[in-house]
Write a structure and sequence with these properties.
The protein has four helices and 15 strands. It is mainly beta. GO terms for molecular function: RNA binding; rRNA pseudouridine synthase activity.
Length: 263
């Protein structure tokens, strides 16, 4: 398993597909085997994983695995202890109640890099910083949680995923670093990677349910393939027959038009 850490800059899309207006992962990582695990929104910064392991993204975003993701968040207004307590208990969002978060007010850190472009804020309104950790992976979750308790987000930086700490690695925006997974306890229980199966693999009575089928090569050796045979892969003897009651006759009627009298 290969894992590369990237400090994603602001205004960069979490995708490899080229974009006319914005930079993407391809501008910082040139490895066709790597895929993104744990994406960040375009207006968020910080730690993302790039890996060749197909199940890592699901593993770190599944709340049952308790892989906390930590964010440094600048909010509009002087955050209150009451708001922080609401975050710790969980807040009600449109897609349901969140799990309890770890939340604390912190000072602006000395290691913080300048954002380009800088954050826009009103001179008459103070700002404050929160460190918040969650083990869920909902869309824009931290931003929505903070806004729900009355403190809109101005800047959001992911600093940790489990024991992987972006600050300790001293990665600047746009920099990458490959890590050894065996040195981190977070990756010791990741299930073995399984081949991708499409949604069409639905178990049906008498079917394979997406399990590999045994077929033979021309030399007689066993060949395993996943999925159900398509109609064009079947011999004539294997193709399904239409059931009739014995009274079916050929259709000799001329095709009808859309309007009356065939018009």
């Amino acid at each position: 398993m290969k894992i590369v850490i990237l400090n994603k800059p602001y205004d960069v899309l979490s995708q490899f597909r080229a974009d006319e207006k914005h930079q993407t992962m391809a501008d910082f990582v040139n490895d066709p085997d790597l895929r993104l695990a744990g994406r960040l929104d375009m207006d968020s910064e910080g730690l993302v994983f790039l890996t060749d392991h197909g199940g890592l993204n699901q593993y770190i975003t599944n709340p049952e695995n308790k892989k906390f993701k930590t964010y440094l968040v600048q909010v509009e207004g002087d955050v209150t202890e009451e708001a922080l307590e609401k975050l710790r208990q969980g807040v009600e969002l449109k897609d349901g109640m969140t799990l309890p978060a770890q939340a604390a007010k912190v000072e602006e850190p000395e290691w913080l890099w300048e954002r380009n472009p800088p954050v826009r804020f009103r001179a008459s309104v103070p700002t404050s910083w929160i460190e918040i950790s969650i083990c869920e992976g909902r869309n824009r979750q931290v931003r929505r949680m903070s806004a729900t308790v009355g403190f809109p987000v101005l800047r959001l930086i992911r600093t940790k995923i489990g024991a992987i700490d972006l600050v300790q690695m001293e990665l600047k925006p746009g920099e990458t670093k490959e890590i050894e997974p065996l040195l981190y306890p977070d990756f010791q229980n990741i299930p073995a990677e399984e081949p991708y199966r499409s949604r069409s693999y639905v178990k049906k009575p008498g079917g394979t349910g997406g399990k590999p089928m045994v077929r033979k090569n021309k030399d007689g050796s066993v060949k395993k393939t996943s999925g159900t045979k398509r109609i064009w892969q079947m011999d004539d003897s294997e193709k399904p027959k239409r059931r009739t009651n014995g009274t079916t006759r050929p259709n000799t009627k001329a095709p009808r038009g859309r309007g009356r009298n065939g018009r």
